[in-house]
Amino acid sequence: MIVITGAAGFIGSNLVKKYNKLGFKNLLLVDDLNKYHKKENIKKLKYKKIISKKEFIKKIEKNTFNEKIKTIFHLGANTNTINKDHKFLKKNNYTYSVKILDFAIKNNCKFLYASTMQVYGRSSKFLEKSIYEKPINFYSKSKLIFDNFARKMAIKNKNINILGLRFFNVFGYGEKHKKKMASSVYQFYEQNKNKGVITLFKNKNKKISRDFIFIDDCIDICVWLEKNYNKSSILNIGSGVSTSYVKIAKKIIQVMGYGKIEFIDIPRNIRNQYQYYSRANINLLKKHGYRNKITDLDTSVKKYIKFLIEKN
After folding, report:
1. Which strands, in side-by-side order, build the sheet including 110-116?
2. Does the pLDDT at position 271 exceed 80?
3. Residues 120, 139, 173, 186: which is the catalytic one?
4. Do the beta carbons of residue 133 and residue 120 sit within 8 Å?
5. pLDDT(186) > 90
6. 3-state DSSP helix/strand/coil percent for the chain, to nearest 5?
7. Which of 105, 135, 94, 101 is nearest to 118 (CA)?
C-alpha cells in the first residue's frame, strides 16, 4: 500500500491520478476535504480509503494499519509563503512531518516528502547543499528545519530511503483551490480572463524570472523516484530553466487571443520575502538516472491554458 498525505491537493491528486493510470489503486489518501475544489480533485479517482489528517496521526501513533505500507508520499503541508505564524508553521510543517518520518523509520517504509525551492531564498545557486540554503520567510524556514532533521535521520538509518523533493514553481491541473498560493501561470490566466490585463511586478535592479515545471513532469519524476531511487537524498524538482514572468504572460495572451500587460510596484509587505530569481540545478537528479525529457514551457503553458479555457 502507498500512503499519500495532502492527497486531494494539487500535487497529491495528480499523483493519485498517475498511479490510477498505471493500474494501481491500493492507495490510502490523507486529507481534510474542507474545500469544494479539493473534493473535485479526487472525485473520479480510485483508492482504497481516505482519512483525515487527525485520524492518520492517531493511526501512526498507535500503528493500527491492516496491511504493510510500502511507501509514504508526505505532500501535506501549509504552503502559505507569507504566513508569519511561526508556531502554526512549525506544528504543520515540522512536528507533523517528524511523526510521519518516525513511523516510516520504525516500519521500514520508503519516505518521500515535499520540500521547497523557497529554502534557497536569494541564493546565487540552487544546488542541494546547505551553503546555498538561505530562507527568507517563516514558511521556508519551517521546511528547512525538517530538511535538516531528515538529513540527520538518513545518516542514522541507512536502511531507510528518505527523499526530500524540492519542488520549484509547479503549475497545472488541480491548483484552483490554492487561490493566492496557486502558480503564477494560473493567476495570470485568471487576471486576463476577468480583466483583460495581466499585472506584473516591476523591478529596476533585478530580473524577475523563475524555474517553472509542468505538473505532468513533476509527477513523472515523483513516480520514477518511488520506483527506481533507493537512496536518501534531497533533490531539486524543476525544469533547469529560468523563464521571465513577461515571457509567460505574453504566451498566455497569445493563447487566449487577447489581453495586455501592466506593471505595478512590488507591495512593501512582501519585498523582503520576495524571490526574484530561481533556476533548479537538476544535475543530481540526472546523475541518479532520470532521463525523461522535461516539457518545454511554451508547450506546457499552451496545453494548460487551453485546458483552462475549455473547462471554463
Report:
1. 49-51, 27-30, 2-5, 71-74, 110-116, 162-167, 233-237
2. no
3. 139
4. yes
5. yes
6. 45, 20, 35
7. 135
67, containing H or E segment = none
Whether 178 is catalytic is yes
The single-letter code of the amino acid at 310 is E
Given 17, 143, 176, 178, the catalytic residue: 178
Grid cell in block for residue 241: 530553466
Q: Look at residues 37, 35, 80, 76 and name the one whose alpha carbon lies nearest to residue 57.
A: 76
> Is 227 among the catalytic positions?
no
- Gap between the Cα atoms of 102 and 90, Å rounded: 17
d(CA 190, CA 45): 26
142-169: pLDDT as tens digits: 889 999 999 999 999 989 999 999 999 9
- Give the least confident one: 18-27, 111-120, 269-278: 269-278
**For position 204, what pLDDT does the model report?**
66
The grid coordinates of residue 119 equal 529554502
DSSP one-letter code for 41: H
Q: Using the predicted structure, report yes or no on whether residue 2 has a pLDDT greater than 60.
A: yes
β partners of residue 237: 167
Annotate 166-216 with DSSP letters as a single string. EE-EEE-TT-GGGGGGS-HHHHHHHHHHHHSEEEEEE-SSS--EEEEEEHH
